[in-house]
Design brief:
By secondary structure, the protein is mainly α. The protein has eleven helices and no strands. Helix 7 packs antiparallel against helix 8. The chain binds protoporphyrin IX containing FE.
Length: 261
């Protein structure tokens, strides 16, 4: 019920605003969007129970745990290296999508497209360099993150499973890095992949077949480029996102970040 207007024009305007706010926040539509415990809901009181509701009832907040241990948010404990690896991955995804607009994975076009990207596309050189340096940085940060986890003994029970997921993540990071290496189709890429696939050719028993599958033919060429492109922009990113989701889920289920020993 709106209160009667009294006092100076400023007070009346303020009263009108308060009434409007009350009627909006008390409406059925508002309450159907903002669930019990929401700080946007009328009558919210800051209690431990309501704080939990705020986190549990929001799509975005519920990605965070309801409670976080003090040491877990101390930057000097994790150095945020896992978070940094994830951030770089997002950066690589965004810059990678930009690059896809200007790149065709064929032996005839690939190198010219990269050259044109650097010389004729606005911010092309910057975005390409962000993608390339980002790739190097991600390998480094994932490795350092692993070293941090090892140093803290965070691989021990109950986190052994997450360590194994981590090893898969490291492998996928390296595979993403290596498949991206061929795409500029320059001398460096060509010979690095020639050396790499020749080494795989020495796999016992199945060497020839492994090399054939990796190259998409008897020797490195357009088919190799297409194959590695699809692995780089679709297959490995898809798989790594699934494993990252499992990794983050396990951090939560294993009781958050490990404590100091
Ligand atoms: C794409 C690569 C990876 C991403 C994005 C990632 C992300 C994360 C994040 C965000 C955390 C939370 C704590 C922190 O930031 O340090 C974490 C924890 C953890 N990660 Fe990773 N990680 C990756 C690779 C790895 C690798 C290579 C290993 C080990 C082989 C690993 C093992 C673990 C373990 C055991 C924890 C729990 C640590 C604790 O409780 O102190 N992760 N990871």
């Amino acid at each position: 019920m709106a209160k009667t207007m009294q006092g100076s024009p400023a007070q009346r305007a303020q009263q009108a605003l308060t009434n409007l706010n009350d009627s909006v926040q008390g409406s059925q539509a508002w309450n159907s969007i903002f669930r019990p415990g929401s700080i946007f809901r009328k009558g919210y009181s800051d209690s431990p129970r309501n704080r939990s509701y705020v986190i549990m009832n929001s799509v975005l907040y519920h990605l965070h745990p309801v409670k976080v241990k003090r040491h877990a948010v101390k930057v000097s404990y994790t150095l945020c290296l896992g978070g940094l690896s994830f951030f770089i991955f997002i950066l690589l995804t965004v810059t990678g999508i930009f690059l896809m607009f200007f790149y065709r994975p064929t032996a005839v076009n690939a190198w010219d497209d990269i050259y044109a990207l650097q010389t004729s596309v606005t911010f092309g050189l910057l975005v390409r360099n962000m993608h390339r340096w980002g790739a190097h940085l991600m390998v480094l940060s994932v490795f350092l993150h692993m070293a941090r986890v090892f140093y803290h003994g965070a691989y021990k029970a109950p986190r052994e499973f997450n360590w194994v997921i981590g090893v898969i993540l490291l492998t996928l990071t390296l595979l993403l890095s290596f498949t991206g290496y061929l795409l500029p189709w320059d001398q460096l890429a060509l010979w690095a992949v020639t050396v790499g696939t020749n080494m795989m050719g020495y796999t016992p028993v199945l060497g020839g077949q492994v090399r054939f599958v990796l190259l998409g033919g008897a020797e490195i060429g357009t088919d190799t480029l297409l194959r590695w492109y699809v692995l780089h922009v679709l297959f490995f990113p898809f798989i790594i996102v699934i494993f990252m989701a499992i990794h983050f889920w396990r951090v939560r289920k294993d009781g958050g970040i490990s404590g100091p020993l």
